[in-house]
Design goal:
Layout: E1 3-6, H1 8-21, H2 26-41, H3 50-60, E2 71-76, E3 79-83, H4 89-107, E4 109-117, H5 124-132, E5 135-141, E6 145-147, E7 157-158, E8 162-166, E9 174-178, H6 185-194, E10 203-204, E11 210-211, H7 214-219, E12 221-222, H8 228-243, E13 266-274, H9 281-296, H10 312-324, E14 326-329, H11 330-340
Parallel strand pairs: 3-4
Antiparallel strand pairs: 1-14, 2-3, 4-13, 5-8, 5-13, 6-7, 8-9, 10-11, 10-12
Helix pairs in contact: 1-2, 1-11, 2-4
Length: 341
């Protein structure tokens, strides 16, 4: 893949203009672009500016309303409901993050439940933005069904992403952002294209039998991380993000790739904790430094692979992007430029 490096501000401007040209209000386009550009800065290119064309493609067929006015209702001092009204996902995610942030600032903890949403990008950008303001976070979303209930052979559960973030005053936060399958379908598709087998435990065939044939794996379903435990976690994420928010859940979620013209009605949950209400900043700084040192000073099994805390690799890529510019796929950048006019 050919790559191009571009300054962060320039990429933000291009993505914002492309989304605005697709029908979003400029302020909303800027919020959406912030999430996607951060994804690229963290190295999560599958969820970065490459999604602009996909989102606007669904806009063109009526699957997403780019001008949707996201509605936020405060249900209690620390609790909000967000109705995305079938808008572009990262905008709805940012509105939910803002709602949870406002509650957490007021009462120490805030939760926002969003419905009427679409693909909202990776969790990492939201958790990072929260951590920069001193908030610990628990964030999750439901997704299109790609996992079978444990012991079953039909996809009824989404590969639902979940993330947890912890701020680190004066340093990089520790953030876990993970989907709940062992491997993504994109990795299986790549192996199929290369004519390579996939590792055991990635997917099952249409009859529910484990397979190393990527073609059969794509015809079947993904296997959850940790077996029945990952299945159980995916179910609980959908209960919080999908059912409790009032969004679609399980098989009620529309698949954007199969029915791009249909509203997905995805649900998200954002829970933020104001760590400054619990402890002084200096206390938090010292404890986080000690915590990180205990992990990273672990003697590595392979001297060439030092032990990392969750999110260390992404934070290093983010710092490099700040210094040197954001590296993106040239084709993705060209597509955004064309959409931006």
């Amino acid at each position: 893949m050919t790559e191009t490096t571009i300054a962060e501000d320039a990429l933000l401007g291009l993505a914002t203009r492309a989304l605005a040209a697709g029908g979003m209000r400029e302020a909303d386009a800027a919020l959406t672009a912030r999430v996607l550009v951060l994804a690229d800065m963290f190295g999560v290119r599958t969820h970065g500016i490459s999604r602009v064309a996909q989102y606007l493609g669904r806009v063109r067929v009526g699957g997403i309303d780019p001008a949707a006015e996201v509605q936020v209702a405060r249900m209690a001092p620390g609790l909000s409901m967000v109705d995305g009204r079938n808008g572009i996902g990262p905008l709805i995610g940012m509105r939910a993050l803002q709602a949870a942030t406002e509650s957490a600032r007021e009462v120490g903890i805030g939760a926002a439940f969003a419905r009427g949403s679409n693909h909202f990008g990776p969790i990492l950008p939201y958790a990072y933005l929260a951590a920069e303001e001193g908030f610990a976070s628990i964030i999750a979303s439901n997704a299109t069904t790609t996992i079978a209930p444990w012991g079953g052979k039909d996809t009824r559960v989404g590969n639902n992403p979940v993330g947890l973030g912890m701020p680190n005053p004066g340093g990089d936060p520790i953030i876990l952002d993970m989907a709940l399958s062992v491997a993504a379908r994109a990795k299986i598709r790549k192996l199929l294209e290369q004519g390579q087998p996939m590792p055991e435990g990635w997917a099952a065939d249409a009859e529910g039998k484990p397979t190393t044939d990527p073609k059969k794996g794509l015809e079947g379903f993904l296997l959850p991380v940790g077996g029945h435990k990952g299945y159980g976690l995916a179910v609980m994420v959908d209960l919080f993000a999908g059912l409790l928010s009032g969004a679609a859940f399980l098989t009620h979620v529309q698949a954007w790739d199969k029915n791009p013209e249909a509203a997905q009605n995805l649900g998200h949950v954002f829970i933020l904790i104001d760590t400054k209400r619990l402890h002084a900043v200096d206390w938090m700084r010292e404890r986080m430094a000690d915590f990180g040192e205990i992990l990273r000073s672990t003697p590595p099994a392979d001297p060439a692979q030092p032990v990392m805390a969750p999110g260390d690799r992404e934070m290093a890529l983010h710092a490099r992007a700040k210094r040197q510019g954001v590296t993106v796929g040239t084709a993705d950048l060209d597509a955004v430029r064309a959409l931006a006019g």
